[in-house]
Amino acid sequence: MSKRILIIMAMEAEAGPVIEKLGLKETPANPQLRSHFPRFQGEFEGKDIVISLNGKSVEHGVDRIGTEFAALNTQSAILEFAPDLIINAGTCGAFSADADIADIITSDQPVVYHDHRVPLEGFDRFAMGSYPTAYRPKYFQSIEHKLGVVTTGNSLDMPDVDKQWIIQNRGMAKEMECAAVASTAHLYGIDFLPIKSVTDHIDIELDNVEQFLNNLSKASNKLSETLIKVLVNID
Predict the structure, then answer these.
(1) Is 90 exceeded by the pLDDT of residue 32?
(2) Catalytic residue list contains 210
(3) What is the pLDDT of residues 117-132, one digit of tens each?
(4) Of the chain's two ends, which shows fewer C-beta atoms within 10 Å, N or C?
């Protein structure tokens, strides 16, 4: 039986290049999900690959970024496809000292939240989260990448309190879905791996929204190239 790899992605622009390069075909809509999560499937290098997107908001016509739909997408895909490995691939922000635009960041350390602040004993650690990754050096053989903590929140901006938490947790990649995907994978006992490509520097004066939009295509193409190489390297 071939290894089945589920790739969770939030944005259509991030996923488009890799879906095209892998030649994946859209799966028939699951009537129970009412087509909420577009899914694409195919075989690559002897592996069964499924890419599942968070979909678009009917009301607003934009990608459903953020933790809520990432978790729903991941759980429903787990129940439908029973994957052996889950990858969360997407873009992220990073401190300028840590990474350049379109650099690839993954992690051999637990994924955390930076905006879940509950100052009650026990709940504080639960809210921050600490979800394991299944990083293997061989997955990234001959691939230039950086290792650092991936930290998740539901806002694109970075107020001082979020910045303090990110620094405290030695965060390198700041993004909006990873911890939700990692926690769902952990709940079902499935190996999890993040792969992120940098779109913006979170510590410089230039508007990070402008940076994100200007660099999204470049970062998405680098993400797809890296993701394909990782899929080749996975046993």
Answers:
(1) no
(2) no
(3) 999 999 999 999 999 9
(4) N
